[in-house]
Amino acid sequence: QVQLVESGGGLVQPGGSLRLSCATSGFTFSRYAMSWYRQAPEKERELVATITSGGGSPNYADSVKGRFTISRDNAKNMLYLQMSSLKPEDTAVYYCKAASIAPRRVYWGQGTQVTVSS
């Protein structure tokens, strides 16, 4: 049974920091590229950051470059998103996603709410 469980969301003031975690099980984590997405109210889900199966080549949306860092621990089957200098426009539900090419598989977590507000 595949599971991706996000945690670490919450309410934070502008300029603050949060660290999101995604605990995974039920698939070979080290063979999957991993991503963080987010979806704000009444907006489409958007890609925030990606990382390759081996942990290299992180890529970020322009809106979060220099503020967010994606990382993974293949020994623990964990994905992380360190978020700093948070802004109100970062408010969204954050999702982790696992994707492989061969075989073609995509798995999503259930999301964790991040609210940036004073």
Write the layout of secondary structure elements.
Blueprint: E1 3-7, E2 10-12, E3 18-25, E4 33-39, E5 46-51, E6 59-60, E7 68-73, E8 78-83, E9 92-100, E10 105-108, E11 112-116
Parallel strand pairs: 2-11
Antiparallel strand pairs: 1-3, 3-8, 4-5, 4-9, 5-6, 7-8, 9-10, 9-11
Summarize the structure.
With 118 residues, the chain is mainly beta.
Core attributes:
single chain, 118 residues, mainly beta, four-stranded antiparallel beta sheet
Description:
The protein has strands at about 5, 10, 20-25, 35-40, 45-50, 60, 70-75, 80-85, 90-100, 105-110, 110-115. The protein contains no helices and 11 strands. The mean pLDDT is about 95. The protein is globular.
Main sheet attributes: strand count, strand direction, barrel closure: 7 strands, mixed
Number of helices: 0
Beta-strand content bin: over 45%
Class based on secondary structure composition and strand pairing: mainly beta
- Please report the total strand number as a whole number: 11
How would the global form be characterised?
A: globular
Mean pLDDT: 96
The first-to-last residue Cα distance is 40 Å
| Fraction in helix | under 10%
Low-confidence stretches: none
What is the H/E string?
EEEEEEEEEEE
Radius of gyration based on Cα positions: 14 Å
